[in-house]
Amino acid sequence: MGSDLDDSSESGTEMSNESTEPKNKEQPEQGAHSEIVASHYNKLEDRGLFARKKSNIFHLRNFNNWIKSVVIEEYSNLIKQRIPLGSPFRVLDMCCGKGGDLMKWISAKATHLICTDIAQVSLEHCESRYNSTNNPEKERRKVEFFAADATLQQLRTKYKDPSMRLHLVSCQFAFHYSFESYKQADCMFKNAAECLDEGFYFIGTIPDANEIMKRQRLAMADSFGNDIYNITFQCDPNNPPLFGAKYNFQLDEVVNCPEFLVHFPTFEKLALKHGLRLREKKRFDEIFDKYKVPRKFLLERMQALETYPQSSGRGMQHNDGPRKDATQYRHAEEYERQLSANQFFRVGTLSQKEWEAATLYLFFAFEKMKTTYDAVGKPIYS
């Protein structure tokens, strides 16, 4: 699960502008990895809260969830400031998985929610999760669930009302799978943009290809990472293509499947093709710096950070997880040395390994531009 870099400052992720079509029969067909990804997520079991608390990435997963919470809240608030009070608030949760963001949409008071994912079993978990929620507005909320591959199929045709206009499209930790090919990425963007109303938003999170390439070059190896995550390139890291730049990603016991680098200038150009103008792009560490004070209470409530030093007393975590290696918290100890001798020291933090995994990602937000049509019906965006 950055700084606004222009094309010239993305030299760490330069990729060859090769043909997007397979050049020989030995190359996989477009979408060949979709079934692998779907199968992987279908097989993931819900291990329960007790097991999750003992995980090496308990706080990392909560931190990523906190990131999603603050950006979803921000953009939901922007939308509610623009639409008339009492009018519908329509959301598409594209690649919704098991419904990790359902409570966020309920809190945002979405009145029409569409949840779709490639993994049928995950989607069934999502629907069951929603049906088990108890909130007073449930009877008045319209919710749709359907399985689809958003990289190959047009989602609009599966909506109960294909003419509806959406206010927010969200795609969390999933868009990069579409960069297997130009055709798939283009289809994904079409699904994100074609029902989005003018002036409203497409938001999401993806791995930061610039950061991945930077770490690969520092490691001087095709495989790198730490005890929590590992990336192994399955393409030439010295000359990765714009599409199909494949690597295998492992994250503790949660993820182990092929992914694809997203060259952000190409990502932005594809978005423009579908009338989406980049509004912001931030790495997760920048999101944390922006919201850690105004959303401190949420950080604590979600246990997105752990207390250091560990204590059996009250703190920012329920101290049920394994005691971690003190060498992973040298940054916290450095902070302690800056305090005066009479100041009590306890801080919320992540281990160095978890922080390295968290900072592999970035957040993006696009705004749908005004649309007009030429004499032959081709859309013109402004």
Distance between the termini: 32 Å
Q: Which percent range describes the beta-strand content?
A: 15-25%
Using the 3D structure, state the CATH architecture of the domain at 33-207 and 257-292 and 363-381: 3-Layer(aba) Sandwich
Oligomeric state as shown: single chain
What is the arithmetic mean of pLDDT? 83
Which regions contain 5 or more consecutive residues with pLDDT less than 50?
1-28, 312-323
Spatially, the strands of the biggest sheet line up as 3-2-1-4-5-13-10
Give the number of DSSP strands: 15
What best-fitting shape do the alpha-carbon axes yield?
A: globular
Helix content bin: 25-40%
Report the structural category: alpha/beta
Q: Say what the CATH topology of the domain at 33-207 and 257-292 and 363-381 is.
A: Rossmann fold
User: What composes the largest sheet?
Assistant: 7 strands, mixed
Family: Belongs to the class I-like SAM-binding methyltransferase superfamily. mRNA cap 0 methyltransferase family.
GO cellular component, one term: nucleus
Protein name: mRNA cap guanine-N(7) methyltransferase
GO molecular function, one term: RNA binding
Structure description:
This is mRNA cap guanine-N(7) methyltransferase. It is found in: Nucleus. With 382 residues, the chain is of the alpha/beta class. Among the domains are: 33-207 and 257-292 and 363-381, 3-Layer(aba) Sandwich (Rossmann fold); 306-313 and 321-349, no CATH class. The protein has twelve helices and 15 strands. It has helices spanning 34-43, 48-53, 58-82, 102-107, 120-131, 182-193, 209-219, 264-273, 284-291, 296-301, 330-337, 352-358; strands at 90-94, 112-117, 142-147, 166-172, 196-207, 223-225, 229-233, 246-251, 255-260, 276-283, 306-308, 347-349, 361-368, 371-373, 379-381. The strands form four sheets. It has a seven-stranded mixed sheet, with helices on both faces. Helix 3 packs parallel to helix 12. The radius of gyration is 21 Å and the shape is globular. Mean pLDDT is 83; it is low at 1-28 and 312-323.
